[in-house]
Design the sequence.
């Protein structure tokens, strides 16, 4: 399920006192071509393995925002994280959409 991250929700998420981790689930090459500042790069095809080996740098008590290129891979990542016990996972959809929302907040 993709929870829409509207500009208003993004603003509230940023302003919340809840620790938020942003995860880019695209490939390393896609990440290198442009990403959200401070986003961790955990490709979706490596996420399940990292979670099972506890090699993921995520805290289950944090809010986790995942994004990819269009929302498909981030939807898969959201499901994996939720099944692993992460309770506050937001699928932000695609990189360009999220970048526009963040830029709108900063202008």
Sequence:
């Amino acid at each position: 399920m993709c929870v829409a991250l509207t500009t208003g929700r993004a603003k509230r998420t940023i302003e919340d006192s809840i620790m938020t981790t942003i995860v880019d689930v695209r490939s390393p090459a896609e990440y290198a071509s442009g990403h959200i500042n401070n986003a961790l790069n955990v490709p979706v095809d490596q996420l399940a393995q990292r979670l099972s080996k506890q090699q993921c740098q995520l805290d289950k008590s944090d809010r986790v925002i995942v994004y990819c290129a269009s929302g498909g891979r981030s939807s898969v990542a959201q499901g994996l994280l939720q099944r692993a016990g992460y309770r506050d996972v937001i699928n932000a959809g695609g990189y360009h959409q999220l970048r526009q929302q963040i830029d709108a907040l900063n202008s």
